[in-house]
Amino acid sequence: MSTTVVVDAKGVKVEGKEDGAKKKSLFSKEPHKMTLGEKFTKSVNVRLSNYTHATTMATFIAVVTLVGFILLMVSMATNCPIEKSDESNTVYQTGIKEMQREFVNKIMKPDNLEELKAEGVTRKATVCMNRAGIYKLGDHGTKNIDPAAGPIQPYDNGYVELQPCALPDDAGFKADGWDVTWCPGMMEKYNDPTAPPCTLDDGDMKSFTSHITYTISTEKRVCPTAASVIGSGLAYIAYIEMFATFFVGVILIKTGFAKPLHEGASIMGLLKSANSDTSKVEDAIDQLRHDVDDMMQGQNDLDDAQSKQIAALEEKVATLMAKLEE
Fold first, then answer.
1. For residues 244 and 271, what is the distance between their CA atoms, to the nearest angstrom?
2. Is the distance from CB of 56 to CB of 319 less than 8 angstroms?
3. Nearest alpha carbon to residue 244 among 235, 232, 255, 252
4. What three-state secondary structure class fits 281?
5. What's 214-252 look like in SS3?
6. How many CB atoms lie within 10 A of CB 86?
7. E-assigned strands of 80-120?
8. What's the predicted TM-score (pTM) here?
9. Torsion angle of C-alpha atoms 27, 32, 37, 41, degrees rounded to 10
10. pLDDT digits over 28-64, tens only?
11. Burial per residue of 173-191, b for 16 or more beta-carbon CB atoms within 10 angstroms, e otherwise
């Protein structure tokens, strides 16, 4: 050790100070400024530095990860499921002929049909007629309940009854501008040609009730948005990176291109550091280790208490590193 003596102008000693030897870090690593390649390697996987050709390994892993990420996004972007909807209903529609005809025609060709086509919706509809009837005043209920008193007379205000009325056949519907046909077997069963017609013409304001069955089916191919594709891809990028690390690591290490620099280097260690959270922890520990080295080499007048604190800090860092290696 050397002693520094400070004297005043009269040559009298005023201060003596012993230069303490620089403290040496327990890590035995000299801090150095990382190169661009080392920074890139560290950003990919901090444990790649345990192997030779670490920057080359990092480049291969980054390329495989990028290719996998792009392929995943392309797969998700082109995976467009088909949304289907089916509606089936039976209705009893009342109105004059013009109203009835408009009702069934709008089921087949709604007002927004062109908009649906522009949105990529495929729509199919079918409408069929079951039967029809006209409400009339019935003759149920009588004034005289004794048949001997004479012919049965209905009340003036009898019950309202729905009586069958005749509709045209399929050809007649088409000729009259109806986009409808008879449901299978219903015309033969319910359409009595001898019954009074359901209506006369468009000017006739007679109202009748029709029994109609219709089905509407729609299909639309739905593709994900660019934002959702990128977001979903980023959610899987950690798994892609782990696969790329394993794939590249096995090939380069097993072929002898990348050789371990110490016994602790392993594929499992690389996979653990491929996890972004683990990588951040190891990066923080590595930075802390260099900070301790800098402090130890930059200070030569540490007292015992400060030296003990630094030693305890070094032990904690070493313990954390050991746990990450497990």
1. 9
2. no
3. 252
4. helix
5. EEEEEEEECCCCHHHHHHHHHHCHHHHHHHHHHHHHHHH
6. 10
7. 82-95
8. 0.53
9. 20
10. 444 456 788 888 888 888 788 888 888 898 899 999 9
11. beeeebbbbbbeebbeebb
